[in-house]
Input
Amino acid sequence: MNMIKSSSMIALAVAFAGCATDAADEPGADQAELGPAAGQTCATNLSTQETSCFETFTAAIAHATGGRVADAPNDAHAYATDVALRDRVERIAGLHPAAAYFIGAQYKDANYRGDVWVYYGDHPCAAGFGSSPEYEAAVMPSGWNDEISSFIAGTGCKEVLYAEGGCMGHESDVNQADFEAYVGDAMNDQTSCIRWF
Ligand SMILES: [Ca+2]
Output
């Protein structure tokens, strides 16, 4: 990490009032504690609740797939709309079990645009609806409550958005749980909890 980047991270840490930590001064420090800087993509491990933030979307996907997909486009919109690439992610996940599986990407804007937050976990989804959720994001990341407008799910997971904390309240259409370019007027900018089945 060069000094310019460190300085900008410190400035950003101050901007994220109260979130500044000494970690900003340490070379190679994980940026998660600081919250995402502008243009960064963060990824949360739903199995451990650890969050890491990356300078590129490509790096976030590599992290979320245990390094198996290291060449995703540096474009979260392109990733959502590139069926061949997403198929490859699914296939790789099936052929080469590892510690990280892409579970879902959330977008602040409709049609897979705007800021994106990636979720991943330590196993694929298999049970489907009717069983207990495989994963739950019980709390939205800072700056993400009541923001989600589109999403894609992955690795066999079916995603359901909920308007209230604790995964209560109005929920997104279970018939559109693989991906959704617009979550609908009732759920738009309402999500406070997510489950994957
Ligand atoms: Ca939105």
Notes: The radius of gyration is 16 Å. Residues 3-15 form the longest helix (13 residues).
